[in-house]
Protein: TetR family transcriptional regulator
Amino acid sequence: MATGHNDPQRRARILAAALDLIAEEGVAGVSHRKIAARARVPLGSMTYHFTGIDDLLLQAFTGYADHAATLFEDRLTCATTADGAREAVTDLVHTLSETPRRDLVLTQELHTLAARRAPYRALCVHWMRRSRTLLEHHFPPPTARRLDALVRGLTLHRALDDTPSDRELTREAIARITAGP
Structure:
């Protein structure tokens, strides 16, 4: 791995290290110094690649949100019918709720920042619009909005519950939300 000035992976390593630290210590626990040490880059690299810690965090979370939205896209673009979309959403809820705790923590840290700060709120709004647009290929916009909220809520509940709901309960909730009037 290159570590000099011509290290093309340095910026990516910094962003990955920031996300790893956020997952371990929360946003409040990160600093330029900790991120640089984790990424094994000189401290000066932080200011070379980012205008400050807020810029670094926003870019790290933007990459994370893009990754999460891509997972959603991968599941839904394979669906060709409403029933296929329902099953894809069911798979998505179960996949997301069974991922490593890292993803759960990163999502919650991002949502907490979004509740407090406009740039992160804009990032979350963009992420939600992206999800809803995919859902709207199969369901009317109001249904897509409710289904997107259900996915986020069910994912969180399944991830945190000592006895998470089974696939049939998820499938039934999705069917009820997406059933016509």
